[in-house]
Automatic annotation (TrEMBL):
Source organism (scientific name): Brumimicrobium aurantiacum
Protein name, UniProt field: StlD/DarB family beta-ketosynthase
Source species, domain of life: Bacteria
Pfam families on file: ACP_syn_III_C, ketoacyl-synt
Annotated Beta-ketoacyl synthase-like N-terminal domain residues: 122-202
Annotated keywords: Acyltransferase, Transferase
Keyword Acyltransferase: yes
GO biological process: secondary metabolite biosynthetic process
Annotated InterPro entries: ACP_syn_III_C, Ketoacyl_synth_N, Thiolase-like
MF annotations from Gene Ontology: acyltransferase activity
Domain Beta-ketoacyl-[acyl-carrier-protein] synthase III C-terminal positions: 283-362
Length: 379
C-alpha cells in the first residue's frame, strides 16, 4: 500500500469579509429577523464570514467556480493542471441537482486530462468523504495523485428574496415562531468558500512540512436517530422526511420546502454526546491515545458548542486539553464541508508545525448525525 501525503493546501474565500454589522445589508431583514440575528450571533462567536453575493444582491461566483479557484492555488511550475489524476470534491450546496458537482468543476479545468471524478454528497462530512476517496485511491495504488476539496455557496439560499413569499403570505413568524427561528438560525451561521488539498504518494521535497494521512474513519448514527438538518423536504410529526417531489410547485414556496432547516432541540441533545462517543470509539479502534494529539481541529458550527465539546471529552477521560485546539471559525464563519480544509490549510502554513506532530481532524454532521475523523502526521 502507498503512503498518502497532503503536499499542498489552498483556499478561496469570495469577495471581502462581511462583519456582523454588515450581514443585514447582504442577506436582508424581515419582521423579527434582526432580533433572531442578535441572539444567534451572541452565541456563535463568528465575527467575519464570506458571501458569493455582493451588497447589491448580485451573485458573484458559482459553487463550481469557488472550487476551481481553490484548485488553481495548488498549481505551480512543477505541478500543472494536466498532472492531476483524480478530482474528488464534496459539497452540500451544488449549483444544480444534475450533473454532479465534480463534473461542473472539471468543466472549468481547461487543459486538464480526462481524469476520474468523484462527487461526495451530504452536509459537512461530504468534504471528508471526498478526501477519503482520494486517500483510498492513492493508498491502493490506483493513482499517484489526487485533488480533494470541499466547498459551499449557501448565501443565495439565505438571502431575503428566498423568504419574502412565504413570510408575507403565511406570516409564519407570527403563526409559527419555532419554524421561523429554525430557518433564521442558519441564516446567521453559514458562509461561502472552498478549500482544496493536493494529495500525492510521496512527500514534496520543496516543502518545509508534508502531512501524512495515517488513517481516516467515521461513524453514522442514522439508524438510531431521526433527521436533524435538512433541505428539499418537510419533516413529518413522526420524524420521517417527506420529499419535495411529494409537493406541488406552489407548495414548494408556501411550505418553504427548499429552505435549510435544523431541529435545534435535537441538535443540542445529540451532537456533542454522539460526537464524543464516536471520537472515543475511533481512537480505541486505531489504538491511538488522545494524549498523543498535538493539534485538535474540530469543525464546530458555533462557539456555543466549543465548551460543551471539551467538557464531554474530559468527562470521557480523553486527554485533549484546550490548548491543543485550533479553530478559525470566528474569522471565516461556518463553511460547512470546506471548514476542515480551511482550518488545516491555515495550520499547515502557520509555521507552528514541527516534524512528528500529530493532528486530529474531527467533522460532525448534524443531518442525521454522522462523524468523520482523520489522523495526520507532520513529516
Amino acid at each position: 500500500m502507498s503512503e498518502v501525503y497532503i503536499t499542498k493546501a489552498s483556499k478561496y474565500l469570495p469577495n471581502s469579509p462581511i462583519s456582523n454589522d454588515e450581514m443585514g445589508e447582504v442577506l436582508g431583514f424581515f419582521n423579527g429577523s434582526e432580533r433572531v440575528k442578535n441572539i444567534v450571533l451572541r452565541n456563535n462567536g463568528i465575527l467575519n464570514r464570506y458571501y458569493a453575493i455582493d451588497k447589491s444582491k448580485n451573485i458573484t461566483h458559482s459553487n463550481a467556480e469557488l472550487t476551481y479557484k481553490a484548485i488553481k492555488g495548488l498549481l505551480d511550475s512543477e505541478f500543472k493542471i494536466e498532472d492531476i489524476e483524480l478530482l474528488s470534491v464534496g459539497t452540500s450546496t451544488p449549483d444544480q441537482q444534475l450533473p454532479s458537482h465534480a463534473a461542473m468543476v472539471h468543466g472549468l479545468m481547461k487543459g486538464s486530462n480526462r481524469l476520474e471524478i468523484n462527487s461526495a454528497s451530504g452536509i459537512c462530512t461530504s468534504g471528508m468523504n471526498a478526501l477519503k476517496y482520494a486517500f483510498m485511491a492513492i493508498k491502493s495504488g490506483m493513482v499517484n495523485n489526487a485533488v480533494a476539496g470541499g466547498s459551499e455557496r449557501v448565501s443565495p439560499m439565505l438571502s431575503l428574496g428566498n423568504f419574502n413569499y412565504e413570510m408575507d403570505t403565511a406570516a409564519k413568524i407570527e403563526e409559527n415562531p419555532v419554524l421561523a427561528f429554525e430557518k433564521e438560525f442558519l441564516r446567521w451561521m453559514l458562509s461561502d468558500g472552498s478549500g482544496t488539498f493536493l494529495l500525492q504518494n510521496k512527500p514534496d521535497p520543496r516543502n518545509e512540512v508534508n502531512l501524512k494521512i495515517e488513517w481516516m474513519d467515521g461513524q453514522s448514527f442514522a439508524s438510531e436517530l431521526e433527521t436533524c438538518m435538512y433541505s428539499g423536504a418537510e419533516k413529518a410529526e413522526n420524524g420521517d422526511l417527506i420529499s419535495w417531489m411529494n409537493f406541488s410547485s406552489s407548495e414548494w414556496a408556501e411550505r418553504s420546502i427548499f429552505s435549510i432547516r435544523q431541529d435545534i432541540k435535537l441538535l443540542d441533545e445529540q451532537i456533542i454526546k454522539n460526537g464524543v462517543e464516536s471520537l472515543k470509539n475511533v481512537l480505541n479502534r486505531h489504538e491511538f491515545e488522545a494524549s498523543e494529539i498535538d493539534y485538535f481541529l474540530p469543525h464546530i458550527s458555533s462557539f456555543f458548542f466549543k465548551e460543551k465539546l471539551m467538557e464531554g471529552i474530559r468527562a470521557e477521560g480523553l486527554d485533549i486539553p484546550d490548548d491543543k485546539l485550533f479553530i478559525n471559525l470566528d474569522q471565516i464563519g461556518n463553511v460547512g464541508s470546506a471548514s476542515i480544509y480551511l482550518m488545516l490549510e491555515e495550520l499547515m502554513y502557520s509555521k507552528r508545525l514541527v516534524k512528528g506532530d500529530k493532528i486530529l481532524l474531527s467533522v460532525p454532521e448534524s443531518g442525521r448525525f454522522n462523524y468523520a475523523y482523520a489522523l495526520i502526521s507532520v513529516e
